[in-house]
Design brief:
By secondary structure, the chain is mainly α. It has six domains: about 25-40 and about 60-80, no CATH class; about 115-230, Tetratricopeptide repeat domain (Serine Threonine Protein Phosphatase 5, Tetratricopeptide repeat); about 255-330, Tetratricopeptide repeat domain (Serine Threonine Protein Phosphatase 5, Tetratricopeptide repeat), CATH 1.25.40.10; about 350-410, no CATH class; about 420-530, no CATH class; about 535-665, Histidine kinase-like ATPase, C-terminal domain (Heat Shock Protein 90), CATH 3.30.565.10. It contains 24 helices and five strands. A five-stranded mixed beta sheet has the order 1-2-3-5-4. The longest helix is centred in the C-terminal third of the chain and has 88 residues, at about 410-500. It is flat, with a radius of gyration of 41 Å. Mean pLDDT is about 80; it is low at about 1-15.
């Protein structure tokens, strides 16, 4: 294994030559000291290259770049320097310093909100910082916003897709994680960006590793490792090497797992990355514990804890300490088990149970073999074989003597009696089987009859229920047609007669208004009974449509909030109709009487109920002074009919808020 390890490190060193040439080229540009954006760009590219090979030097160059950018008033470059320092300080376990530079970057972005590139740089940095801190829910909005703001199909977009995939993986959503990683990989391939491809392949390997698809994960890791060696990404080679160790460990190929872990450890020490060394030692300890080599496992755990404690890496220290405590408990349990087995053996020796004593020797041999104490295992195996030969020889003689005595004692009369008894037992068994068969047939017939009666009763009750629902629907439709459309048609008839005798233009205008209202009512009735509109998603679409028709002509702005996880909820005809009419009345009141400029509509789900609220910023009113008008009373009546409640909150000069709360059934 030592020769293989040397070979890996040699190949790794050769791969790094390409990267060293890039670093030398950037250094030549920096040495010109032009103190302009050209030098700043070279410095930031140098920081990027050094983060993969020499993070300590990368941190120094990032500080120098920030100082230069600040002195020549180049805010964008200063912001980029801060975001690199956030990542580097976090890697060294200096979280307070990382938070400081993240706040500095945010302060710069707030001062220049029009600079989209700066905004995206900060959002990406904040998302990565919170993700690496384990604050995944906090990181998600930053990462999503960065992806939404950038529309170009370039390296920035591909990197954002990669970050979003890694965040979903941290949340345990590996399906979405793999989807974003594949999108990022395709874009990096189109752009011929090898470094980005290697990152995406590494992340895809992680996705499949957590899904226990180890062969697929290994293939992605090997492709990533090949590219990282090609471009000289020493840090990337280290990460992927450790990942291959994890994969082979879970595939129970311990020899290869040990090889990759040892390779990763050698790399961490050469690159002087103590945080990575602590994690690699932790993983090696897990491997040795699985291999039952507790001594090596303990050595690796202890070294990992020493390094992580020096770095202040509490996460790695706590995980490793937990494994070490578990190892201690396991060894104590092993010692206790060994003592109990030896105590049992001594008791058997004292009682003289030689057969059980031989069995206990065999168990002790297996126990010591499992714990790789082969000397004791062989000793007790010899004891078992020697005692077994002695016990089994005496047992054979005793068995032969018993058979001989039994043969001499048997008589023909006993055989005949036994034969007759067997015949009687067979006859009784046959009768019992026939009786059981008859009972089973009767029970099955009864079950079938009862089942048929229950099914028929269910169908009759279901048919009656559907008939009652249809009757109720027909009654409601008839009532709506009579109340809304019938009254409107009567008004149109009267006005048409008046038009023939008086001012025709005015009456025709009223006819047009009433007919328009009648068409709107007819449309609402048809919409409410159409089964295609059963989902809350269709109701929300109808509410948005009505709000836009009423509010936009009056120059009233509005926003509509409806969580996506509620849109597939099903509503019956009566609830859809009443919800829409309550919403319609609330919007009309806001448009006609509030004198406001903005309306906010929100759908919120809380436990087993949901709430529809309509809030305006108008003049408001005092419900206790004015009483409740017919509109509010009708809205409350409709809410009660649905088993819900309507709350009205308003004050003069503070707007009006109407909230409908309904149980989810």
């Amino acid at each position: 294994m030592r020769a293989q390890l040397c070979l890996v490190l040699w190949v790794w060193s050769l791969a790094a030559l390409g990267q060293s040439r890039t670093i030398d080229s950037l250094q030549r540009v920096i040495d010109k000291r032009t103190r302009d954006t050209l030098e700043l760009g070279a410095r930031l590219n140098l920081v990027f290259e050094l983060t993969r090979t020499d993070p300590r030097k990368a941190k120094l160059v990032a500080h120098q770049t920030a100082k230069l950018a600040d002195s020549i008033k180049q805010v964008r470059w200063l912001n980029s320097s801060y975001t690199y320092l956030v990542s580097l300080y976090q890697e060294f376990g200096l979280i307070d310093s990382a938070r400081y530079f993240l706040a500095k970057a945010e302060q710069l972005c707030r001062a220049k909100p029009e600079d989209k590139r700066m905004q995206i740089s900060f959002l990406r940095s904040a998302g990565l910082f919170h993700k690496n801190q384990g604050e995944y829910k906090t990181a998600l909005p930053y990462t999503l916003k960065a992806l939404e703001m950038w529309s170009k199909q370039d390296e920035t977009k591909a990197g954002q897709l990669l970050n979003l995939g890694n965040l979903h993986a941290a949340l345990g959503d590996f399906q979405n994680a793999a989807n974003y990683h594949l999108q990022g990989l395709r874009l990096f391939e189109e752009l011929k960006n090898l470094r980005g491809q290697s990152f995406c392949l590494q992340s895809l390997g992680n996705d499949f590793f957590h899904l226990n698809q180890f062969i697929t994960a290994r293939e992605y890791y090997e492709r990533s490792l090949q590219i990282k060696k090609q471009i000289g990404d020493k840090r990337g080679v280290l990460v992927t090497t450790a990942s291959l160790g994890d994969t082979y460990k879970d595939m129970n190929d311990y020899q290869r797992a040990e090889f990759y872990y040892q390779s990763a450890l050698a790399m961490t020490r050469e690159m002087k990355l103590p945080a990575e060394e602590a994690r690699a030692l932790h993983q090696s300890g897990l491997l040795y514990r699985r291999m039952k080599e507790n001594k090596k496992a303990r050595e690796n755990f202890v070294k990992s804890m020493e390094i992580s404690k020096q770095l202040g890496d509490s996460t790695t220290w706590i995980k490793t300490r937990s494994e070490l405590l578990s190892l201690d408990l396991s060894e104590r349990a092993q010692e206790k088990t060994e003592a109990q087995m030896l105590e049992g053996l001594n008791m058997l020796i004292r009682t003289g149970d030689r057969q059980q004593q031989a069995l206990e020797y065999h168990r002790l041999s297996e126990y010591y073999a499992q714990h790789k104490d082969f000397e004791k295992a062989f000793y007790y195996l010899q004891k078992h074989e020697a005692l077994s030969d002695s016990v089994e020889g005496n047992a054979v003689l005793m068995q032969l003597k018993e058979l001989e005595e039994k043969y001499n004692s048997e008589k023909k009369e006993r055989q005949i009696a036994l034969l007759k008894k067997d015949q009687q037992l067979q006859a009784l068994e046959l009768q019992k089987q026939r009786a059981n068969t008859t009972i089973i047939i009767v029970v099955l017939i009864s079950v079938v009859v009862i089942g048929a009666l229950l099914v028929n009763r269910y169908r009759v009750m279901n048919r009656s229920k559907r008939q009652a629902e249809l009757e109720k629907m027909r009654l409601n439709i008839a009532q709506d047609l009579h109340d809304d459309i019938g009254s409107t048609l009567s008004s149109i008839n009267i006005m048409s007669q008046v038009a023939t005798q008086t001012n025709a233009a005015e009456q025709l205008q009223k006819i047009a208004s009433h007919s328009s209202r009648m068409m709107e009512s007819m449309s609402d009735i048809v919409w409410s009974i159409n089964p295609k509109n059963d989902s809350l998603e269709q109701v929300v679409a109808k509410l948005k449509e009505f709000a836009s028709e009423i509010l936009e002509p009056r120059n009233i702005t509005y926003d509509f909030q409806a969580p996506a996880d509620m849109l597939d909820m099903k509503l019956d005809v009566e609830k859809r109709k009443n919800i829409f009419l309550i919403f319609k009345e609330a919007i009309n009141n806001a448009a006609k009487y509030s004198e406001g400029t903005h309306v906010q509509v929100a759908l919120v789900r809380t436990g087993d109920s949901f709430q529809l609220s309509v809030r305006d910023d108008g003049k408001g009113f005092n419900p206790h002074e004015n009483g409740k008008g017919n509109g509010l009373k009708n809205m409350e009546a409709r809410a009660r009919a649905m088993g819900g409640e309507l709350e009205t909150n308003s004050m003069r000069g503070a707007g009006t808020a109407i909230a409908l709360k309904l149980p989810i059934t």
